[in-house]
């Protein structure tokens, strides 16, 4: 059988080495960080507006917003057929042209089947509404 190897004893880490390790880690993090100074709201994401307190008074400056920003938000929230001239995806192609190809005539009995009721349907509808009102569902 093989003899077990001797356990390597670790020296306790002193404060100087610990501080050097921390400084090296911070220096590497700062090399790869990028500082952002301009912030913009994503126009493609829905905003959740929190209203002001009812007792707070607004000034005239707060009521006026940037018209260019409002235009960007309005365009982002509009439907795809108003944003683009043609469909961007295959799923958009299905409902892109939503005008009917033929005008439907409601008086034509060949294509129009309005809802009709008979005596049995009227009886069961009355029975069902009584059952709902009594709460025996």
UniProtKB/TrEMBL annotation:
Pfam families: FAM183. InterPro entries: CFAP144. One of its GO terms (cellular component) is ciliary base. The keyword Cytoplasm applies. The keyword Cytoplasm applies. Keywords: Cell projection, Cytoplasm, Cytoskeleton. It is found in: Cell projection, Cilium; Cytoplasm, Cytoskeleton. Its main location: other. Belongs to the CFAP144 family. This is Protein FAM183A. It comes from Silurus meridionalis (Southern catfish). The lineage of its organism: Eukaryota, Metazoa, Chordata, Craniata, Vertebrata.
